[in-house]
Fold each of these.
Amino acid sequence: MRISRRGFLVAGASLPLAGFAGRVMGQTSSGSSGKGGNLTIGLSSYPPNLQPWVNAGSAAGTMAALIHRGLLSFSADGQIQGELAESWERDGDTGWVFHLRQAKFQNGSPVRAEDIKWNLEQVADAKSTAYMRSQFQGVERIETPDERTVRLIMKQPTVAVPDWLATYFMPMVAPGTLSRDSFAVGAGPFKLKKLERGVSIDLEAFEGFYKPGMPKFETVRVVAYPDENLRVAALQSGDVDLIDYVPWAAMSQIEQDKNLRLDTTLGPYMYLTFNGRTGPFADARVRRAVALAIKRDDIVQSAFFGRGAPLEGLPLQEGTPYFDPARAHGWRRDVDAAKALLAEAGLSGGFSCTLLSTAQYGMHKNTAEVVQQNLADLNIVVNLHMPDWATRVALGNRGQYEFAVNGTAMESTDPDNLSSVLDDTAAPSFIRSTGITVPGLSTLLHQGRAEFDTEKRRAIYAKVEELVLEQAPMVGLAWRSQGYAMKANLQGFTNIPGPLSFYSATTLENASLA
């Protein structure tokens, strides 16, 4: 029995994609010689935005990983690998050289060095809204000595350039195909065929994809299941082959089903962001008091059914050179210290505020409820505002909140990616706090980015960690186990380990149903 979905989809689940639906609906499949099979993905949300270079959440990232490719990507084991660039190397102190492979965009035009230069210039433009604009404003110049060579010269030594280019925030799109009322043409394994706004997106294999024999699926249908119970039910009934954001309450049940397979990794995390323009959260003492009041084990149990761990500092994973066990517990719960900080700030009697979250994801809702309960110990009355995910993203991007629950992951294993949640000079994004400037923090982040020596980098990021623990521009809450569930016969798909889980859809180029 197939599940009826129309009744529960939220009408506002996507931001407008004006003009695009009609354009792709008219496309016809050119056939997929040598390919076979159809994959159906149950996605936790309809993407709020399908434009390249932006951060619109993991659903949009999944679509980007299917449709687009950048110069580099992350492999199934988490290593950086070539994509449109078949090789790359450092060039002196500030340069990086990328050697392009023979590849085509989905409109048939070849991928040339000039196209890569154009993409990078769009991201770095002063008026750009690209998520990684601030990073690529560090480019001094881009040279294209021939059609298959791109030389990127940075203003200073920059260790993280390959990591940036491996993220799905840096797809390379065909010049001339980007406008406000259409979707840019990519170079990935699947191309858009049609969409039904708020409901589903249909893709077909791109026969001009540069990897021989890939993709293996002829079509991919992505269906939005915002209700996580219906998402699991769709997998169990066979309506879909793969789901993201497996609800933690269902993980044990899936593990016991011989027809299904669960693939989890510990890496994504939950945290709080703040609006420092006005109100109590403009004061670092209040933010730190909040950090010290949270009972993080309650979040792990309530939101993740024990499949996670407390996050009492910055999201630096144990086992990396930058992890320090003392600083990792810098925000361990201490209600007395929290009350003393509020008294210093003149708020010993507490105050009322609104916490932005979303009810669309149980982890966000449950995390918000624990924060609400814990802050009552400080006489802070927290009202919850939990709209749908697309609205939550829009409010966060506009800075229209007092403080907010968010969930994300480091964009790579390099500590430079702390910048994504900490750099107050970066373009506005729901992933970062708004209106908070921590003196010296951005400078330290840029110093860490410019240093190639590991020991010197460790010293820099230790200072970053100390400053963040004191000023609390964001507050870590909990690590979470991030899971995909699938039919047992789905082969070739991998949940990329640790913080790279959200890039896992890139491995679907090699997936098939046995």
Note: The longest helix spans residues 454-471.
Amino acid sequence: MKFVRSRFERPLLTSIRSRILVIALLPALLAEFGMVAHFTTQALATAEHALHVRAANAARRLADALPHALANGDTARVHSLLQIEAVNSQLSFARVADAHGHPVASTGSPPRTVHPDEHHRQHAAIRVPAVDLPHSAVVATPASPDFNLLGQVEVGVSLDQIGAFRRDSLIHATLLMLAALALTGALAWRLSNRLAGQLRHVGHVVGRLGCGDLTVRTQLPPQGEVGLLAAGINNMAEALQAHRGELEKRIRDATADLATRKEMAERANQAKSRFFAAASHDLRQPLHALSLFVAALKMRNQPPEAQTLIDNIAASTAAMELLFNALLDISRLDAGAIEAHPVHFPLQKMLLDLNHQFSAVAAEKQLHLRFRPCDVTLYSDPLLIERILANLIANAIRYTDDGGILVGCRRRGRMVRISVADTGRGIPPEQQESVFHEFVQLHNPARDRSKGLGLGLAIVSRLGRLLGHRVELRSRPGHGSTFSVDVPCGDARLIRPPAAASAPGQIPADALVLLVDDESAILRGMAELFDNWNIDLVTAHSAAEAVQWLDSIGRVPDIIVSDYRLPDDSDGIEVITRLRQKFGCDIPAILVTGDTAPDTILRISRAGFPLLHKPLRPAKLRALLTHLIQQARTAAVG
């Protein structure tokens, strides 16, 4: 609100107040100055005229009063009359001269010391009155104009009085003008304050409206322009408040509807996750038992016809295992159980391995699979990068009918773009985003399982986000597709040489393995497999049964292999913890599960136990058993 006031009220109000003051004071100042000048000039002219009249009247009166005294030569009388008139008429000087110009009498400052610009002078002739002259004298000398001239009187009035009057007039006029200006300014200031206060109030209301407070209203009467403006703002605020109330109601309704839909979607998603987890677990259980029985059968000498059947069963089991592993990868990525471990590694060696892996598959479809040499070093997780490229190449081979696939790379600054281009069917623009979703297969409407589950690109997208690498698709229907992934460049000097592969060891002959699983078929299959391996195995359906068997033989198992899901709401983590507490040592343990739920995978990962998913590969299980048992015995000896 302070920001709004500082940006709106202050400049506007200051401008309005200053303009009102200027509009009020400037005409008043001009009018008052003109009136003062006019009346002062009139007063000065009147005073000067009065001064002239006074001097002329004084000269005339003296001229009328002096003839007798002057004719009789009464100088004292003349001097007395001059003094009396000088006092009465406020003369600065007065003097009388005879007809020949000789001074007779004077009063005041001497005439020769009087500055002509400082006084106003008036002259008057002193004549013999007509009644005093003999008729014969008048008749006898008609041609002489100065016959009756007795002398001349001169009076002077000081102009200092005019100057003092001028100063007094200017001072009075100035004081009057200042008083008028002060009165005008006070009235203008009061009016401007009133208008500014109204505008400030309106600005305050507008500021609060701008800050979202739609309940504020102006408190001004609806008279005048400002009142109409305030009334308009009130109407606008009421309309905005009503509109916001309607919007808030719509938002609440929409939010409630979205919450309901979200809850329904979450319930559906949880139900789907539970269904997939349960279905995956329930399907993996018999598949796991089947793979164990098939592995046991392959180790026995069978007739050629039976061996062929066993190989076909093993191939079908392996195909199902690949499909389940794809689901498992999605679950592990969604659970965050896969972590990236970036290192510096050469790309060319990886491309050679991929060429060896897919060349035969491409040749079966009569496709040309080419790898351009890429002598670059990358910095990323090589296992996950290889998984991305393997899925892209497999997807290109699967959806390319003729032509070929080209795998190459190109440097782009500090990045290397690895591209897999094919001459396949292409992907329409409107479907290029959906192909990265799980279970999406554009060219497999019949859901032929030989073409996979539609999870390859979903895994690529998730791995790209996990690594922070951009995955890009460019495709045109009928012209093929190009999938690219941008990987940071590495430093060839930081490439670590691969660790020397150690020869696989053997499980010690006296080793004892404990297997806990609630499926009898899996226990029988594992028993057959371990018999062929000549490894001692104790099987149990629960932790209590395992403790009973181990107590009966009086041995501590070298390793525990437990299913994650067990009856009575227990799990493999609890079983391993209970057995470790009973025997007082950290017995090596492996968890086995067919559950692909992300929360299950995350919980097992946090527990820190090695995890194998059903169906198990016997060779992988035996290698892990050998490693853990040898590691534990080496640590015990050390």
Note: Confidence is low (pLDDT under 50) at residues 1-9, 132-144.
Amino acid sequence: MLRADARAEDRGRPGGAGLVLTTPGARLAAILLFGLGAMALTIVVAQRASPDPGLPLIFWCEIGVGLAALTISGWVWALRPREMATRLFAVSGLATLAFTFSAASFAGGAVDPRGLAIAMIWLNAIGASGFGLAMIWLFLVYPVRLPHWPWITAVCAVFVSAFAVLSRGGHLPAWATIHFLTVIEMAAIALAILGQLIATRRAPRDRAIAVWFGLSVLFGAGGFITLNALPQVLGYQAVIKAGYAFMFFLLIYIGVAAGLRQYRLFELGEWAFRILFYVVGSLALVALDAALVGLLAIGPGMALGLSLLAVGFLYLPLRDALARRFTSRPGLSEQEVFREVVALAFQPVQQDRPGQWQQLLTRLFDPLEIRAASDAGDEPEIREDGLELVLPPASGIPATSLRYPWAGRSLFGAAHVKTAQHLLQLMAHADASRDAYDRGVAEERGRIARDMHDNIGAQLLGALHSRDDERKNSMIRETLTDLRDIINNASTGAPTLDETLADLRVETAERLEAVSIALDWTNSSGGTAPLSAAVAHALRSVVREAVSNVIRHSGAGHIRIGIECLADRLTLVIEDDGRGFDPETVVAGNGLANMRGRISGLGGELSLSPLKPGNRLVAVFQAGGGRERVT
């Protein structure tokens, strides 16, 4: 998959619309079709040069080497088309195709006409010298870039080009043949490989790549040089004919294919084989169908049926077995993901959350690299043709970059983006639930604290000042009952307003009598409808707290409490003749804040004003509860 900016760049190129190959499969298919077309042309040329109806074995060896080199190098480039190393590797494969196919055209005999023969000779020389130059350049920049590699590459290119032109033009001694040039290039390749081994001596992974890839090239190209080119340069007969010696080049490309799995050459992994399997299967179907129709003169319908049968029974089982071997990976079920996300969201230690998040992502995608990202967007984004998935910040966790999923065996795709989005949504919902839980816990703690302060404190204070032991014991028992109700947030029923006020008047009168404060109680409510638990609780709490403040702080000798209920609107007025205070200047304590909170929770208002002497408290709220909430 290509990034959006890469696709936009492709669309912006002149003449690019409809022609740009934007997927790895399309690029690889185009390369293979080119190779098949070149093979067909080579077969035509070789058959015209051959006196026999068939073509010799050496021809098919050369054709096989060229197609294998083009396929594997094109496969690597198709997956990473913008990397310099993969482009150079693709050039080496194309050069191999050029010198093997041009040599194959002479396998049946002398090519006629002479102009075509000269063209094939030049193609062979360009392919051989181009392969050497591409490999020199490749080892100058991969796996690490060696010092002064641009200058070294330029010098090598000028030397190779000049040598090839001068030798073919007859301007060099007889020993300066194309074989001599390939020997020189092989020596330069060996020096470049040595430079990579020195440069990567402190980087184990890069050194392993340099050793593996370098040995593949040394044994592959070196085998051809040792058994064919070098003996001819020294004036001896070649040990093996060039067509058969070309088989050594397969070591290079087979080594690369194996290295993808072992060392992730060119930053690829086992996942790359999946694309190759599908494209090769499609091309095998087309090639087999064309062969049956063109060579065996079978009808199109029967040819297609036989091709499908062959591919279905022979190729697909092999492909599926290899795909399972290369792409099998662990994962998590939806239930496991949900449990992990909930556990992460409710993690009490915030500093541990990023580590747990990375563990969850590792279990989901098994990336080789996971680290913080500094340039993440608002949504999950795939980068580097599927090698990287970048996740945005989530619930206090920084943005995260995942690279090389499933230990380098696969690519990130659209399904994985949806998985990441689902994961982030789960995190957001779990985080919101945790916040709601925290708010609920805080509110419950606040409710208990207010009730303990307003009710329990007031009742214990009344019991402390009571001179009647029986009444004192009764008040303590009532306090214990209220304490259980506070802890359980339980309601003792739904009393009417008159019942609530009657109980509250008796309780208040006893408390004030114990401290010699006179009470003037006025009730004009006439309320017989049941009160909600919230309204009854708030009314008792406000009266108790106000009376407690008068007892503790005012030094009053008289207190007046009036309750009036009109049209379901309850007005509570409490006045005393004590020392009083200015509400605008005094610092309010918890008691006053609790009273305001309770009345506000019922949609009402509470005001406090000074009298001369004393203070006046007025609370107005709906007897039905207004915006009722349990506090």
Note: Residues 414-465 form the longest helix (52 residues).
